[in-house]
Amino acid sequence: MSLQQILSFIPAMAGLVALIIGLLAVITPAKASKGFGIEASGPALHYVVATGVRDIFIGLIMLVLYWHGDTKIIGACFICIAVVAIADFTLTFKHGSKKQSVVHAAGAIFSIIYGSLVILQVGL
After folding, report:
1. How far is it, in rounded angstroms, from Cα 86 to Cα 123?
2. Dihedral in degrees, nearest 10, Cα atoms 11, 17, 23, 26
3. What is the torsion angle, in degrees rounded to the nearest 10, for the CA atoms of residue 101, residue 107, residue 113 and residue 115?
4. Beta-carbon neighbour count of residue 109 at 10 Å?
């Protein structure tokens, strides 16, 4: 399998990962909040469920776009998703685990780079 073929599956993989993370946040919000980088309890868990629904939505959108194969829109969506990752980074860095905030920052950087490459169609 070539690098180009592997890279073409990234939207599907990202969609599945977001969908799974979202489902886990809805089903087990306390555990998901710890994995996110800001532990929550009590009424705050309702916000974790809301972010889970957000992630389910993002995952479904990525899977639909992958299914339709519109690469330029997929690229634009990856850049837009970086906004979510930047917000998640900012929140976890300021109010939670600095270590977990790095995961959100890496997600933002990856989303911007991958989305830009797809839009420019550099090797993709």
Report:
1. 26
2. -100
3. -140
4. 14
Tens-binned pLDDT, residue by residue, of the chain (124 aa): 776 777 789 999 999 999 999 999 999 999 999 999 999 999 999 999 999 999 999 999 999 999 998 888 999 999 999 999 999 999 999 999 999 999 999 999 999 999 998 888 755 5
Q: How far is CA 114 from CA 21, 53, 84, 87, in A?
A: 21, 24, 15, 19
Domain ranges in the chain are 3-120
Both tokens of 30, joined, read: 């306390």
pTM: 0.88
Residue 56 and residue 5: Cα distance in Å, rounded?
25
